[in-house]
Write a structure and sequence with these properties.
The protein is α/β, with parallel strands linked by helices. Helices cover 42% and strands 14% of the residues. The two termini are 29 Å apart.
Amino acid sequence: MSVVGNLTVKRILPIVALLAIGCAAQAAKETKGDDKAFEGSRTIADLYVVDCLLPGQVRQLGTRTYLTARRPIKTTAADCRIRGGEYVAYDRADYKSALNVWMPSAEAGDAEAQVNVGEIFERGLGSEPNYEAALIWYRKAAAQGNTRAQFNLGTLYEQGLGIERDPLAALNWYRQAWGLEADDVIFASAAQREQDALRAELEAQLDEKNDQLELLKRQLGDAEAKLSASSVENSQAQREARTLKGLIAQLEEQQKKQREQLASIPRTREPQAAPAPKAVEPPPTPSATLVSGVNLGRYFALLIGNQDYDTLEDLNSPLNDIARAKEVLEQKYGFTVLTIADGDNTAVMEAINDLNEIVEDNDNLLIFYAGHGARLSTGDNEIGYWLPTNADAPPRDTYWVPNEFVTGHLSRLKAKRVLLVVDSCYAGLLSAEPTFLLLGNNTARYSDPDFLRFKLGKRARLLLTSGGDKPVLDGTPENHSVFARAFLDALAANDGILSGPDLYVRIRDRVVEAAARVDFDQRPELKTIKAAGHEVGDFFFVPK
């Protein structure tokens, strides 16, 4: 592990990790002794985030002494023990005990506890996902104005989980989580796009059903004509006629519902251009407006590059990737950067854990990971992993760093905005959430301080991956991976405020085209990590 300048691991922890390309090789270099499986296990267990039930506090009111109810929190196992709390040891196969921690507070009306209960049901921790139950608890919390619950509801409506898919309802929940009024121009333009798309889809489906009905009615007419012309009873023709009548009735009922849905789509106003300013002096340039009067917070980055493995196949480019990332982030954007080069599982997990001691409420954290990735199936679930340099070949996962460890710490970090950039195989397994409907190029809006304040006021937990849930390309020893080059070139060429979605748009096609030149299918993804507390915020790169 290397440390930037004189900054120690515990001092520089707030960082967004860039994940490097590479999949765990099935063939190992050489097998080490089994005795290493016990080294440092206690330290690693202490670093995991758990659902902790703290003991009640002894309080005095006048002459009366009483004990408060136990309070649930998310914290590390070590911190929970120090504070006298109760928790169940980490077990990827069974999270049912988490409900016992959060349910009493949720039933008592605590909105944060209600969101946590909803997420347990949605993720199916210890059982199959129960989206209907998740909806119930999200709605309870959303009714109290909890923005995380409002966002989570939006993702369920967008994906059609536990309820009929409804992009407009999803967008409306995102709007509430964002804090926008229903007539806000940002929301109105996005809603208009979704309404137009839904209207076009319904109209196309109605046209298709009209064609199907005409065909079925002609067939029914032919069958009835045969029956009336024949004096002999024809049971087969009668069955065909009944079947055709049933199909016609079904299509007509579907048409009726689609016409009702089409009629219910509201007609939103077209967004109007803002009136020109009346001031005689010209308006300030966008760069001055974007910085002046708007506190963007401090910027930290954690860069992890794993290239030279003990037993797995070595990679070519992760160390080049994090070296250039450090240069760009420090010199162009003013990040405080910590790098971990060829870190084992303890180094990687301690660095992520210690970030909580560094970042503050309004800070920005970028975590960039480049290295091997792997996945394992547990029942019906697939779990993704980062592979440190001391990792064994699959399926031996003793030293692997699971996605749950990473997302668990992202949920407890105080940083307002976190971007996780992962360049490894199966990185998409870090989040099952969809991209959000407000994705698009809003660069022109960043000159509006109100727009920027909307975004900056909401927590952001974003995931930018190099290739979804599939293997991805490594680079050459002298160069960068396909994804890292596009990512770093886009940052280096940028000369204004650059949001996470806009960064994704700039690099997506370039990665797809570069991979296609070597007959490889690789498609970057941008997702939210709502289980880590995302609230429709964003991440911004601001050149110095």
